[in-house]
Amino acid sequence: MTSVQYSSTGRFIDLVKENSKRGNSVQHPAISINSDGKYFDISYEEYYNIVSHSANHFYDQLKSIDFSAGRNVAFLSASDSHYLWNMLGLMATNVSPVLLSPRNSVEATIHLLKESNSRVLVYQDVFAPMAKGIQKAFPDLVILPKWITKYPECLSPVDHKLLIPLKSQEEELNTVSYTVHSSASTAYPKLVPQLNRVCHNVGYRARNEMLPYDRKELNFFPLFHAGGVMSIVIATNYLMKSTILGPDMTPGSFPSPKMIIELIQELSPKALVIIPLLAKVLVDYCEKAPRSEGWDTLKTVDFVRWGGAEVPKFAVQALFDNGVTPLNNIASTELSLVMSCVPDKNSEYLVPLTPAEGLQYTLKDWGNNIVELVISKDDPCLACVQEKDEDGNFPTKDLFQIISREPLLLSYYSRADDTIIHVNGEKTNPIPMEDTINRCPYIDACAILGTGKQLNTLLVQLKSDEVLKSSLNDVITSIKSFVKTANDSAPSHSRIYDEMIYYLPLNNDKKLPVTIKGNLQRSKCAIMFEEEVKQSVEKMESGNVSDETPGLEGKSSEEGGNTESIVKACLKSSIDKQLENSDSFFNNGMDSLSGMRFRNLLKSKISGLDLKVTDIYDNDTVDKLVEFIEFSKQGKKPNNKPLEDYQKEVDDYIARYIKSLVEQPKVSKVYALIRAKDDAQAKQKLESSFSQRFINISPENSTKIVPLAVKLHEDQLGLSNETYKLILPKLTHVHHVGWTMNFLKGLDYFDDCIAASKNLMKLSVLSRHKVIYNLVSTIGATFPTTSADVTSVPESSLSTKLLNAGTCNGYNLSKLVTETVSQIWSKDYDIPLHIHRVGQISGDTINGSWNITEHIPLLIKGIQVMKIFPDILESTLTWIPANTAADAIVEIGAQDQTSQNGIAHIINPNGYSFNIIYDTLKDYGIGFELVSVQEFIHQLKTNPEYQNADVNPLATLTDFFDTVFLSGHDIILETKLTSQSSTTISNCPALDGNLMTRYLKYWEKQDFIISN
């Protein structure tokens, strides 16, 4: 910012003196204030005189204090005109005020005093008991009452003195002018010091936003927040912009809409600057009041500007409809002005945003056109921030939806920490839902919570005066109608059912916590209401259901309803759709949330029914479910062939993986975490795994391996405290490889695996080193979120929107969930993360060892037994040998994480077809004929000869081949970035006749197949 004009000393406060000398060149006042019931103007010369009187007061009070160890002076007061003069007077003496919000708790205030190392606390009289109480805990803390400005005495000219001598201009530019803090979404806000240089730069950036400088603006922003400092202190002193300060009020008072309308009538401002909550209240007032007492006055201002939070869309639309331009300027404590507003009443978004002039930033992709704004470390307006990414840049945690890329227009989406991440990886943006629900006349405030849960819980804080004037039925009916409206525009996984609404008791001392801007403090709220949320979720998961579900009156087994009619009625209530008896629930709108409610409704209507959500997954049509329920009543299961589990630990390449690790020269120790009853059994299992796969490890490398018996899903991995603490200081890499495989089970079947990943991530967080976390995922994780028209999947993060119901088995979903959660942990805890999406692993290239329990060997055996080959000859294969996959994961996993290698596709980049297998089997002497896929499945399912698992082990996987393998998701997984990161992948050998023959010979040695 080469055009920025700095003060002659480098201190921002000295612009006040310089303005006093050039104030005669402007016709407008510096500021208009109302300290005793009447407004009066203050010129730039008088402005400087008041600041000088304030500075002299503080010089006299503080001159005996040694500030050599720190310049900070804390200031605790409500915002008024006296606040302005106290703040500027302290700055003029060359100490640095720390602006404390009066809404902070005592604990938060003490925390900020400690963090800032403040020597002095200046307080407003109403906070005297708190200040004196704090002083008892900190005897060295000097406490002083706030200076009260006296007019007209303080308007007279006077010189002032400095408590700390000035340095050079360059040194002063890099000195802290004042400190603000975050608005405390948690118990302890964070300090954000503002350098003198940054204050000047902020003023320069805002120069066009504030034009014209003589426009009369009535400003209600509080001075202890960044927005107030920018629009009142910085704009007045850097830009010489005139401001009308909101009238002084009793601490704790809130300007009423009627007062604002009356002030507009009295002062005739051309702009109104207010906090978002006040904007909503003002619109509500104007909508209800006669036009002559509301809109007719408000429309005399050119615009209403707010910042810091979103104003509900209905209020923004109402401003447009009544001739008032709404302006939503996004600013932050760390950066001041971030986004300028481009109001457009014809736009769906009404108040689109564009980055402020000169902003240095990048947009971090969150998928689905959602981006996070990341500010460059070189941005001249960036304050002294603690939270930086690995490149030193500042992630704002503000999410925006891209409306247009040329020109770049954005719509505010939510805070990243407002976004609810459910246990299944789905995301909920609660803000638009809460805005809709808060419009209910009986609701004072509401909060949607659900992070880490499958379900959202709605907390409702009622307006007691409105509720007591109405019947309970009217209140509940109204609230549910607004919840329904919110649900109608929300994703299915975000819906709030009646059972998940928790009403806070009237006159309850425990209220939903909000900031002065009206923003819900979601993190604090989650802590305060943890038990209430837990109970509502547990009730829902255990089968709780609303007594007033419409459409189910008279539908129960006790009232004579038959099972089919009850199932259909409950189904329609759950997904709002009538299905044919053979239609799949999950192909017609049912998801895990509506599936749970469907289960609950059925249990409430069918006496004594024992039904799990997974039973609905397994019986996903009316016909199947009715049959299942009828048999369940008799304590039986339906008379169809039971599904055989296809489960195994991925031992094949885990063993090779360990071999690859210990062969790395930099690796000194490998803790092999193995499910076993004790360490001795763990060692025996590992040695057996090596032996079965002909894996030889040198004695030198063998000493690197420490087998440990674990229970990965338990806290501390089931290890003793001693062992757990022994591992922590030594860790540099964590590899999560093992995972139960079963393509026929629901998501909850994999709870232990997901818990294991969480515990391993926790291990990474607690380690002393910056541990690199490696998650071995699957290409199957990409299937549920990839629509049928997509032909390729890049090496990037996945959406959580499920688009392919046929691939939403529990195995794929569990990997998708774990990928999503791991990326969240990686970001939140700054853990380098590699996700390795592994495709079909074939046997190794050395011995041809390929586990005969896997589905490809079983398919080959089935082909030999049945003497038929399914016509999938042109299907593309990307099988990767087990040893190649292990080497590639070890190679990539040892690298520092970059944008290029964070997600890898561990597949063979050299695709080939089933023709190679077809030809090799023929050459090996195995006879068969080619049949259609449908015929192959038909023979497998219906021919009694082929259903004998002892003869044809493929029979154990009948349903798997029917629903997963032969109807697989035919897409290309990209490997460009993976090949660049791994020479092992780029040099991966393609399957040819020689390698396939090696596999056949291995299976023959195992007496698995017989050559002819």
From TrEMBL:
Domain Carrier: 557-633
Entry keywords, A to Z: Phosphopantetheine, Phosphoprotein
Domain of life of the native organism: Eukaryota
Disordered, as annotated region: 538-563
Record keyword Phosphoprotein present: yes
A Pfam family matched in the record: PP-binding
InterPro entries assigned to the protein according to its UniProt record, in alphabetical order: ACP-like_sf (IPR036736), Adenylate-forming_Reductase (IPR051414), AMP-dep_synth/lig_dom (IPR000873), ANL_N_sf (IPR042099), FAR_NAD-bd (IPR013120), NAD(P)-bd_dom_sf (IPR036291), PP-bd_ACP (IPR009081)
Name of the protein described by the UniProt record: Acetyl-CoA synthetase-like protein
Organism per entry: Conidiobolus coronatus (strain ATCC 28846 / CBS 209.66 / NRRL 28638) (Delacroixia coronata)
High-level lineage: Eukaryota, Fungi, Fungi incertae sedis, Zoopagomycota, Entomophthoromycotina
